[in-house]
Amino acid sequence: MLLRIPVLDHGYLEAIESWGSDERIVEAARMSTGKGFLRWDEGPCPACGTMDEQGPGCHACEGKGSVRGDVHLLRRLWTMKHATPFEMAGLVIEVQAPIFVFREWHRHRTQSYNEMSARYMPLPNVNYIPSVARLLINSKTNKQAGTVAGAEELTEGVAFIFQESLRHIYAEAETLYQQALRAGIPKELARIHLPVGRYSRMRASANLRNWLAFLTLRMDQAAQWEIRQYANAVGEIIAERFPRTWALFTEGRK
Amino acid sequence: MLLRIPVLDHGYLEAIESWGSDERIVEAARMSTGKGFLRWDEGPCPACGTMDEQGPGCHACEGKGSVRGDVHLLRRLWTMKHATPFEMAGLVIEVQAPIFVFREWHRHRTQSYNEMSARYMPLPNVNYIPSVARLLINSKTNKQAGTVAGAEELTEGVAFIFQESLRHIYAEAETLYQQALRAGIPKELARIHLPVGRYSRMRASANLRNWLAFLTLRMDQAAQWEIRQYANAVGEIIAERFPRTWALFTEGRK
Amino acid sequence: MLLRIPVLDHGYLEAIESWGSDERIVEAARMSTGKGFLRWDEGPCPACGTMDEQGPGCHACEGKGSVRGDVHLLRRLWTMKHATPFEMAGLVIEVQAPIFVFREWHRHRTQSYNEMSARYMPLPNVNYIPSVARLLINSKTNKQAGTVAGAEELTEGVAFIFQESLRHIYAEAETLYQQALRAGIPKELARIHLPVGRYSRMRASANLRNWLAFLTLRMDQAAQWEIRQYANAVGEIIAERFPRTWALFTEGRK
Amino acid sequence: MLLRIPVLDHGYLEAIESWGSDERIVEAARMSTGKGFLRWDEGPCPACGTMDEQGPGCHACEGKGSVRGDVHLLRRLWTMKHATPFEMAGLVIEVQAPIFVFREWHRHRTQSYNEMSARYMPLPNVNYIPSVARLLINSKTNKQAGTVAGAEELTEGVAFIFQESLRHIYAEAETLYQQALRAGIPKELARIHLPVGRYSRMRASANLRNWLAFLTLRMDQAAQWEIRQYANAVGEIIAERFPRTWALFTEGRK
Lengths: 254, 254, 254, 254
Fold this sequence. Notes:
4 copies of one chain form a homotetramer.
Chain A: E1 4-7, E2 11-19, H1 22-29, H2 69-79, E3 90-98, H3 99-105, E4 112-115, H4 132-136, H5 156-182, H6 187-190, E5 199-207, H7 208-218, H8 225-241, H9 243-253
Antiparallel strand pairs in A: 1-2, 2-3, 3-5, 4-5
């Protein structure tokens, strides 16, 4: 059972709890026809013995041996975008990530959030430094991930210097933060110069339909590399708990 | 463990699955201060021995023995309407109820639904007949539950006759339904004369915050008596799975 | 200005109010780059005179004459599913439709609804009778719209008889309704035998993104013919108020 | 007509567009009884001449002269929390505020957002410096707005020094930002040390019900002073466009 997956230099993603299953999704979908989940059996039709992979139920014996329908039904739900049965399962996670990642994450309005608050407690001094390899990933094709017009070609040496500059300004920010707190500046104001690269922590909950919508956007090449690492970690957990749905999701992304 | 609770003459409500717990709610709320769930212990403070019921943590020893804070925190979340931690738990149910109850239910837009469909399968011939006792509950104070202006005083005898008339027209509707289906009327049209008193079936899922919002409206005296019976059954399940939250909810309703 | 569009035998759809415009959608999208709406001009680039249809802004003069970008930006938003700018416009309608249509409609949880209530007032005696032509549309390919197994081939004569039977049972239901109301049965119970073919009335409001999601599902061949007529009417109003967005939507459906 | 309201040192809030009105809210609520908006007339009942302020319609003549009911209906909707009619009106605004204010704002998941993105464009160098008067507002009663345990008493002199330190670290952050951009660091990484006190800009849209829920939380004393200034500005716009609803809202907050 996957527990805590390390992400970036100081972040993590941890599965707190999941509910539902691939079977429950089929059961919910079968409400429309008054039936429930039967079994995944993908062998020959128990009624007529034919190996038939097309359509729901066995075509050879005209659906009389329809116990094999569940594999097909799940596929059809996914490919035809019958999305509501996927709302009958879900996942709660805990995640530590830089504030700029949470800024993107919180735009997903179908999740529930409980986050650490700098109004209640001083934020721990944990900040994100991108690796040199990461700094050198500069997409020419992705406008958002690109450089400004007229920028120089980034070199490894300059990437090292940028890391050093980050460390320096992060340290300075922390010093001012501690001084301000001690001097009696209210917590909610003492933190306003803290960088968006500082780590925060939250719990997030959503149903499976909405997690998959999140992953569709955040595993995409157009998403920022950092949030993609978190999305991939969410994907690992979903793959473990909902393997059949995950197989359909990854198949659909190709 | 409560499973299937009978409701009305042919309905039921069944707990399929719940997630989270009173403890998980506290844990999620504690994200804001970077702490988690400790324990419910309501005895004397383990640090200083004082019995102190006010505020979060032990006041006598200035919070050093704050393990007793969880009881107080849950109460404070509820009374101060800090609702998001209650989104970290939830419940999936299956319910069989008359269509007119589902019409009210589906106005709650924060739940997920998968319902039986008359477009996919002929609806079973199960219909709601209110009991005579129920027919005689006529609220003088509740406009919605009242009679039209100038109506007679309902007698027990007339209530019996109304039951009989319902049985008659329900039977007639079923006969026409079966005839129409056999005659080749598409399923989606053969059902348009079916009464809103016919039973349907669905799965519904929501987080605890939204279930409690549902109950606030649907356990209320202003709600129709029929949906109130279903709301009470949801309440029984919540009481069993989330006893501390339930205690606060019922306390708040008085 | 389109006002009240008749739908089915006794229904209608009426535009109450819309907000936003194709221009506002572009303005909102341009928040991300700090720019606003410029103009739709689709002629040659005013800066360099070149006719250039590719990409945002004029490629020939490297974006210096970017006033033509708005046409392209709107298209890119739509085709790349950048959906949030389409939430900055919307539409309020009033609609009269059979209850079974509202049952499907209310599954769309992103709309706001205010509907006539049989608990507050006796429902007017207006009921849906499908035309013979409509009854004879029986999809062989669409399972939901189809007949039950073993059904006869529907003839025009039988369709006429079904219409007659509907009129008969509708009248009977109305008679019982009036008798029950007069006899002192509470309004909320006197209506439980009324058919799902009876008309109700509501106001519905949603932003444009969610109206288009509604139309994607409800203008589809898999949707019941009746709700499709209402969806088409919504489409007529959107076409009038948001012509450029509508053009992209219809283009995308082909 | 209110347009752009200045907020904090460099922020603003601007009304882009509103829809609906106090009258439309009444019209929507009257869907339940099949009636519409009549008039606000608060003088004597036109049917019987009596001055009657209680209940919906005129009590003296038993509702026959019910034209005065609209004032009472709006009040009853509000006080009894019949919230859905307030979803039939709404407001689109544009707002410039520090990132830490947007972090709180975006937790409201029923609004639509389009925000400036540092992935698309370099963020303008505009940063928040709290006034000395603001720095000295230190709530003893509000835990979130308070200082850390053991902090000194904040003096005016130290507040000046904190302002100066903010200016210094903001300038340093901007210098590093510009250097990094020029050196070829991708825009999405060159900004990770920027402070949460930097201003961003967005459009936000919501219906009136959800704006009022936002104001209930964000005009409250427990909300951070900065977001309260923005909430007050939203209130000014709502007061102007929906004066009767606003009067009920403010009355209810006392």
